[in-house]
Amino acid sequence: MPGDRVHTIDRDTKRRAMIAYELASKHYRPEVYEDLDEVRDMPPKDGVVLLHDGFTSQGLAQLTAVLSANLSRVPIIVFDEKPSTGSVVQAMLAGATDFLEWPFTSERLDATVARAENDGRSHPRLMERRHNAAARLQALTDRERDVLRHLIRGLGSKDIAAILGISPRTIEVHRANVISKLSARSTSDAIRIGIYGGLDD
């Protein structure tokens, strides 16, 4: 929510400054870090963290360890330019609350930060989100659920088509149906819903 802290960890000075400016214009309180060493020196206690995917899943694991050691439950949002399905899945399974594609609109940033803050503040709310995700997954056919499961595993359309014995074009149709039925904004968003709904088991 505007007024809260958003901690951005990004090695790219220009992008870091752009994000901080955007956050300040939305009345958040931006804090910036060049790398994980700075975070270790000044671990965040509140708000949310924006972590650039250039740090990879190992960096995400390190950040999670730093926060845990300081008894901090600050949610982490990972972001990157044109993220692959695999990187989104990897980040979500490693503990990220959400994944943003850069450049992101101010509206998308605002909604994602608000959702992450709500999840971080309330375990029951997280349970509700998982319940809602599972309910939304009921709208999918068995084949659409299969496609989403393989997307969560980081596979592309050609690989999924080979596994399921259908054409890549048909996979793209199923992917579009999944996004539509889940009211998702993108494939990444559909993957997030699938993970919350338990399809990564």
Description:
- This protein has helices at residues 13-25, 36-41, 56-69, 85-93, 106-121, 123-137, 142-152, 157-164, 168-181, 187-196, and strands at 5-9, 29-33, 48-52, 76-81, 98-102.
- It folds into two domains: 5-121, Rossmann fold (3-Layer(aba) Sandwich), CATH 3.40.50; 129-196, Winged helix-like DNA-binding domain superfamily/Winged helix DNA-binding domain (Arc Repressor Mutant, subunit A, Orthogonal Bundle).
- The longest helix is centred in the middle third of the chain and has 16 residues, at 106-121.
- It is α/β, with parallel strands linked by helices and 201 residues long.
- The protein is built from ten helices and five strands.
- The mean pLDDT is 86.
- It has a five-stranded parallel beta sheet, sandwiched between helices.
Residue fraction in strands: 5-15%
- The dominant shape is elongated
Instruction: Using the CA coordinates, give the radius of gyration.
Output: 17 Å
CATH class (first level) name of the largest domain:
Alpha Beta
Structural category: alpha/beta
CATH superfamily of the largest domain: Response regulator
Task: Please describe the biggest sheet, giving its number of strands, its sense, and whether it closes into a barrel.
Answer: 5 strands, parallel
Spatial ordering of strands, largest sheet: 2-1-3-4-5
User: Any idea how many domains?
Assistant: 2
Please give the alpha-carbon distance between the first and last residues.
32 Å
Report the average pLDDT across residues: 86
CATH architecture of the largest domain: 3-Layer(aba) Sandwich
Number of strands: 5
